[in-house]
């Protein structure tokens, strides 16, 4: 039983790693002259194919998933895009 709780504890860490990877990837895209907005477009595609009202099973899956939901990733990616744009303006 304790192994189950340990696994659930580490899931939150894996989600934060995904956010960090998204942020790093968007900054790398910008430095490579690619449009970092593509990360937002990708999450929009995923949000369109995800049911608007999640079922109980989907809520459980989201809780135990190693990846954040597309909606949450979209929000974080918007923040990263604003950060990139602010950095460009200050240079």
Describe the protein's architecture and organization.
The chain has 91 residues and is mostly helical. It is 79% helix and 0% strand. It contains 4 helices and no strands. It has helices at residues 2-31, 37-48, 56-64, 70-90. Helix 1 runs parallel beside helix 4. The longest helix is centred in the first third of the chain and has 30 residues, at 2-31. The chain is flat. The termini are far apart. The mean pLDDT is 87.
Instruction: Kindly provide the radius of gyration, computed on alpha-carbon positions and rounded to a whole number of angstroms.
Output: 16 Å
**Backbone structural class:** mainly alpha
Q: How is the quaternary structure best described?
A: single chain
**How many DSSP helices?**
4
Largest sheet: none
Run of helices and strands: HHHH
Overall pLDDT, averaged?
A: 87
Number of domains: 1
The total beta strand count reads 0
Question: Which consecutive residue ranges, at least 5 long each, have pLDDT under 50?
Answer: none
| Cα distance spanning the termini | 53 Å
Report the principal-axis shape.
Answer: flat
Beta-strand fraction estimate: under 5%
Helix content: over 70%
Annotation keywords:
single chain, 91 residues, mainly alpha, 4 helices
Summarize the structure.
With 91 residues, the chain is an all-alpha fold. The protein has four helices and no strands. α1 packs parallel to α4 and α2 packs antiparallel against α4.
């Amino acid at each position: 039983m304790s192994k189950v709780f340990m696994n659930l504890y580490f899931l939150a860490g894996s989600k934060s790693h995904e956010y960090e990877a998204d942020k790093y990837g968007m900054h790398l895209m910008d430095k490579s002259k690619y449009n970092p907005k593509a990360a937002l477009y990708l999450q929009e595609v995923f949000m369109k194919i995800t049911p608007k009202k999640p079922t109980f099973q989907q809520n459980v899956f989201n809780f135990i998933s190693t990846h954040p939901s597309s909606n949450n990733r979209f929000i974080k990616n918007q923040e990263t895009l604003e950060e990139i744009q602010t950095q460009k303006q200050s240079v």
